[in-house]
Structure formats: C-alpha cells, structure tokens
Amino acid sequence: MTGGAGFIGSNYLHWMVSRHPEIRFVNLDLLTYAGNLANIESISAEANYEFVQGDITDSALVEMLFQTHGFDTVVHFAAESHVDRSIEDPLSFVRTNVIGTTILLETARTFWKASDSMSLCRFHHVSTDEVYGSLGTTGQFLESTPYAPRSPYAASKASSDHFVRAFAETYGLPILITNCSNNFGPYQFPEKLIPLTIVNAVSEQAIPVYGRGDNIRDWLFVLDHCEALELVLQRGTPGQTYLIGGGNEWSNLDLVNKILDRVDESLSRPEGTGRALVSFVDDRPGHDFRYSVNTDRIQAELDWRPSHSLDEALELTVTWYLENQDWIECVKDESYMRYYDRMYGDRISNKDDG
Ligand code: NAD
Ligand code: TDX
Q1: Does ligand 2 have an atom closer than 6 angstroms to the CB of 183?
Q2: Which residue puts its alpha carbon closest to atom 43 of ligand 1?
Q3: How many structural domains are present in the chain?
Q4: 3-class SS at 93?
Q5: Distance 79 CA to ligand 1 centre (A)
Q6: Where would I find the H helices in 59-204?
Q7: Sorting pLDDT into bands at 50, 70 and 90, what band is 350?
Q8: Closest to 79 (Cα-Cα) out of 105, 97, 53
Q9: Cβ distance 122 to 174 under 8 Å?
Q10: Is 56 near ligand 1, meaning CB less than 6 Å away?
C-alpha cells in the first residue's frame, strides 16, 4: 500500500493489519508534511507489517519493491490531498497524483503480465468524489456521472482515475476504483475543516469559514470508509468503480457550529464560546458548492452502509483530538517531521540509500 502514514491510509492500517495476519503489508510513504509515523506507531512492530520511506514517482524504487516482495495487490492512497494547496502549487499534484499513479500502474503491469495469476491481482485506486465536479442544491453523483473536475487537486485525481481505467482497458489490469466523499476522524491533518475546527476551538483561535459557510459536503467517518475499502478489495468486481459516502450532508457553517458546541460541552465551557471564534474569510477560488454521493451500488453489491451515525462519529473524533494533545502539539511545532529519524532510523528498509 502507498500513503499509509497519512490520514486515511493510517486508519486503514489500524483496521486491516491485525484483522489480516495472513496478509503482509508493505507501506510505501514519502513522509511529506502529511505523513506522520506517530499515526502508525502502534502497528510498527507487527510481524506482518513493514515501512518503506520513499516516493511513488521513484520508478527504480517501486520496481525494486515489486521485485523484492512480489506484490499481488496494490492499495494506493498516496496523494497530495489538500485543495487549497493545489491552488498554490498545482504541479506537485500532477507529479504525485498523476505521474506517481502512472508509475505504480506501469510497474504493476510489467510484473503482473509475466505471471500466470494476473487475474487474481488487484490494483485498488483510492479516489475522490471531487472528480465529478460541483452539484447544485439537488441531485447526487453516480458512478456514471461524467467527470468535471474544477480544482487542480480534483483535476489531478480525475487524471489518475483515467490512467487507472486506461490500464484496465488496454492491458487488462485488474483494477478497482473507489471515489469517496469527505472523510473525517482520528489522525486527520489539521489543515482540513473538521480537525482545524477542533484544534482551533481548543486553543480558542479563529475558525476560518470560507464565504458564508453555505457550501455542502457529504461527511464519511473514516472507519466506515475503511470497512468499505476492505469489502471492495475482497469482493469488488475487477474493473468496477464504487462510490462511498456517509449520507451526511451538512453546510460548512452548520457543521462547524455543531462541532464547536460539542467542544464547549466536553471542556465545560460556557455555551457560545466556540461559536464566537467563527471568522468568515474570503471564499476559496472555484469553490465547489455541493457534493452528494449515491451509494446504491456498494450497498446492493457488497451490502455496505456506514455503521456510525454522524453524531457518534463526531463524538469519537472530538474525543480523540481532546485526548491526543501530544499529537496536536507535535504537528503544530512540526517536531513530528523529525519523528522518523528519532523512532525508526535504523529500521527503515531503504534508509541507507537515502
Ligand atoms: P493525506 O494527505 O492525509 O496523506 C497522504 C499520504 O501520502 C501522506 O502520508 C504522504 O506522506 C503520502 N505521500 C504524498 N506524496 C507521496 C509520494 N510522492 N510518494 C509516497 N507517498 C506520498 O491524504 P488522505 O486524506 O489520507 O487521503 C488518502 C487518499 O484518499 C488520497 O488519494 C486522497 O485523494 C483520497 N481521498 C481523501 C479524502 C479525504 O476526505 N481525506 C476524500 C476522498 C478521497
Ligand atoms: O479553513 C477552512 N474553511 C472552510 O470553510 C477549510 C480548510 C475548509 N473550508 C471549507 C471548504 C470546503 O467547502 O470546508 C469544506 C471542506 O474543506 P476541506 O476540509 O479542505 O475539504 P474539501 O476541499 O471538501 O476536500 C476534501 O474532501 C475530498 C479532501 O481534502 C480531499 O482530499 C477529498 O478528496
């Protein structure tokens, strides 16, 4: 798997590694600002798990890893994932999301075409609902909705999805694509709306709400997402796309207020303390208005639906951030970026090669 030190990837490892002792997991992650080994510290000693620090655009490294481990499955999370950063620096999104994905595809194709069991291999690409563009007040994205990405991030993910499908059509690569809605939960980097709101609320700093806060997102708890990803990998039809969504549509302002009230309650602060921190700021350029995901296919084929209500999942998430102030402090002072050397220096496979 790639990107396992990031938010969703680390939750996936927590979900999968102990459940599947029969699987050997190799986690290839560059440890960009978004990768944090503290997210997966408790997994690092598991016998069926190995970490490799490296770049998915490094084709020699990816090839070496395929040669060494003989992977039959790739689950691909690694990406530049933040829309606002893509507006500042679109090329790094092309590099990792488009070129990196294509290098993984090409390496998998080269190795798997030589084996008799290509049909048993899987390339699972984790993507986003943002590839479908922006909805008005009604309607939902379906797997058949035409692509219409509107941010550099979404365009790079759309491009990667196209490459994944092209490799299935042209070379018969057994692929799976999942396009999910906005995730939230433990270990999410506090540049994204929900963790930013919790972290700033705790330290009583302003909460920036873009525009009037009326944009709508469909929120998915990360562990419900991980359960869906496991099912898709085990039982999904090769070549198929599955949408995964939480069925929780909220305007940004309503959601932020809900979280702020919860934080006030948890910290026994006077009602309204959090709401007073909301600060309306300039809108995001090209800000998609609304996302909403139709999950009929995954429900019908794989019998998946989210197990957590929004309230339960927010409670778990707020509690996790409140109980993990050390994690937040390390992210804030950026010491988590030195964590790798301090904790894992001599245990990382390709460390000596730089
Ligand atoms: P994240 O930004 O938290 O983590 C990304 C991980 O990828 C980090 O560990 C980072 O170090 C690693 N990485 C980045 N560039 C790399 C490179 N060149 N080589 C190797 N590793 C690299 O992202 P996330 O929120 O966990 O998202 C995971 C995947 O899910 C992404 O593909 C994203 O597009 C998709 N997705 C996320 C959401 C969401 O709400 N977070 C929603 C839909 C889809
Ligand atoms: O400070 C903020 N204020 C604000 O109003 C931030 C960071 C966001 N917002 C708004 C913008 C969006 O309407 O909140 C909404 C959610 O923003 P993000 O958390 O940045 O997520 P979004 O842009 O919707 O994209 C996310 O979901 C789809 C992930 O970052 C992507 O990786 C994923 O593909």
Answers
A1: no
A2: 128
A3: 1
A4: helix
A5: 4
A6: 59-69, 83-88, 90-93, 101-113, 152-171, 193-202
A7: very low
A8: 97
A9: yes
A10: yes
Distance 260 CA to ligand 2 centre (A): 17
The response to whether residue 8 sits with its C-beta less than 6 Å from ligand 1 reads yes
| Residue type (1 letter), 139 | G
73 C-alpha to ligand 1 centroid (Å): 18
Q: What pLDDT was estimated at residue 353?
A: 42
- Structure confidence at residue 183 (pLDDT): 98
CA distances from 345 to 1, 37, 45, 77, 318 (A): 21, 12, 14, 24, 32
Residue 99 has pLDDT above 90, yes or no: yes
Task: Report the catalytic residues.
Answer: 129-130, 153
In a domain? residue 328 = no
CATH of the domain at 160: 3.40.50.720
* 3-class secondary-structure state, position 8: helix
Q: The tokens of 182 are what?
A: 């906005």
In a domain, 87, yes or no: yes
| 142 three-state secondary structure | coil
Q: Which domain holds residue 137?
A: 7-185+219-249+288-309+334-348
Which residue of 7, 151, 184, 295 sits with most ligand 1 atoms within 8 Å of its CB, as the best mutation to test the pocket?
A: 7
User: 156 lies in a domain?
Assistant: yes
